[in-house]
Amino acid sequence: MSAGLPRFGVHAGLWGFDWTPDAAARTIGSAAAAGYDFIEIPAVDRSVHPPDDTRRALSANGLDAVVSLALSFDDDITSSDPAVAARGEHRLAEAVAFAAEIGATFVGGVVFSAMGRYLRLPTAADRDRSLAALRRTATLAARDGITLGVEYVNRYESNLLNTAAQTARFVREIDQPNVVVHMDTFHASVEEISLGDAVRDAGPLLGYIHASESHRGRLGTGTIDWRRFADDLRAAGFAGPVTVETFSSAVVGTDAAVDIGLWRPLWEDPSAVAADSLQFLREQFTPVAVTV
User: Fold this and answer.
1) Does 151 qualify as catalytic in the annotation?
2) Quick one: which of 171, 217, 232, 264 has the fewest CB in 10 Å?
3) Are 158 and 76 in contact (CB under 8 A)?
């Protein structure tokens, strides 16, 4: 990590979502080879993918990790169906357990509702159920020194939290010291007046960034003004972490492409994109020297 720069990470999905021991070792090795400080790993079923394999691969490559997930309609903690809500809370607890077992200290993502198109407006009861479940999850996470990140998403992927201001208010209502706002620049580009306004609205609660282009492709090829965003983060005192999140249908496979809405390949070579993205972010986050 360069002096004065945030800690930079990369989402494992850049190389696909297979997490067999061989795939995990390859993905973690590729992230380390590209020069990242850490890798973001989607929470896996621990009964299918023993955490020991992941922990060994991280240790062998000298790489740190964070964990992420997105709830579905089958395990939505806002649901009025107690069985559905219980599945969601169990899934959150399992993600925390996975993080603890691989030595990760952050679990983020769409942890507050299903990630998908709702066909109804949210209710006060929906919100209260989410808050209650996340208070319990945060208490559980705190026992292992884990921070919980609440990632707001665009209007087509949640009906509850779509802006930094909404999410900061929600986090304050959870009222647990280990809960932060998780901001994704792709979603923020859809919903916010500006990324700078979003940073200011999140304020000191901003704890984690997904660096994702406006079209979710290669960084620097969309409409986001990354230099200005880096300056806004610096002015707000945000020091990281920042994680590259970009996916391509050329890599992730049909099921994941449909789930994410990747209807066209955005790039072909994940390792090249990983290396280029890290170099790009380092350049954007390096303060420009002012000459007098």
Assistant:
1) yes
2) 264
3) no
pLDDT, one tens digit per residue, over 76-94 is 999 999 999 999 999 999 9
Residue with tokens 């983060």: 233
Residue 245 annotated among the catalytic residues of the structure: yes
Per-residue pLDDT of 9-56, as tens digits, reads 999 999 999 999 999 999 999 999 999 999 999 999 998 898 999 999
Say how far apart CA 42 and CA 11 lie, in whole Å. 8
Please tell me which residue in 89, 151, 192, 213 is annotated as part of the active site.
Answer: 151
Write down the residue that tokens 């399992």 correspond to.
94
Query: Nearest CA to 134 among 198, 180, 203, 99?
Result: 180
Q: If we measure between CA atoms, which residue out of 134, 156, 166, 155 comes closest to residue 69?
A: 134
